[in-house]
Design goal:
Structural class: alpha/beta
Shape: globular
Number of strands: 7
Order of helices and strands: HHEHEHEEEEHEH
Helix content: 40-55%
Number of helices: 6
């Protein structure tokens, strides 16, 4: 794992006790899906979904990949999507760079951003897409709803083996403000801590 990202993981793990019990109960649903698939030796596809696939779903996808690597859950494959496609927001990209991810951003209207968590592992291609895009799993996956709007818009996610609502507040509210970077970092940190916690409970 990239050295600065490894340091970030240790920092986030130290904050597990700050996660409210009600939130831990919600995260338990993700843990149980991972554990059940791991016990049966099946692949563990996780698709993180928000409205535009531009901020929270990408952050959750990437931090889940970090958590799977850190805790050695090798069957996990991470994906993301939206109820509509826009672009991986540059503010969110900047936040993951600050968090320690390696990023190759070619630019453009909807860039295919290559994100690395380790120098010896293939990068994760992140771009905005609908959740049922052909690059994402079509069945047997856990649909992890990372925003309330997507959760309400998709009461049923076709093909999903599980549907888990773990909503996060949208950092978009701070766009253009003096607190923009701080808000994006706080959201990234929250997602990181909670994804690491969920994976830490898989035993």
């Amino acid at each position: 794992m990239r050295p600065f990202l490894r340091q970030a993981v240790a920092k986030h793990i130290a904050h597990f006790d700050e996660i409210p019990q009600a939130r831990k109960a919600t995260l338990r649903e993700l843990t149980e899906f991972i554990m059940s698939r791991r016990a049966s030796g099946e692949p563990i596809p996780l698709t993180f979904i928000c409205t535009h696939n531009s901020r929270r779903s990408h952050m959750a996808q990437l931090w889940a990949a970090v958590a799977a690597t850190h805790y050695g859950v090798s069957q996990v494959a991470v994906f993301s999507g939206g109820t509509e496609a826009t672009a991986f927001n540059p503010r969110a990209i900047a936040a993951i760079v600050r968090a320690g991810f390696g990023v190759d951003d070619p630019g453009g209207d909807n860039p295919h951003v290559l994100v690395s968590i380790a120098d010896d592992a293939p990068p994760i291609a992140c771009f905005s897409k609908v959740y049922d895009d052909p690059v994402n799993p079509q069945n047997g996956f856990a649909a992890v709803m990372t925003c309330s709007a997507a959760d309400e818009a998709c009461p049923v996610v076709l093909g999903a083996a599980a549907r888990i609502a773990i909503p996060y507040e949208d950092p978009k509210a701070a766009d253009g403000s003096d607190h923009e970077a701080e808000t994006y970092d706080l959201r990234s940190n929250q997602i990181a801590t909670e994804m690491l916690y969920a994976f830490s409970q898989t035993g």
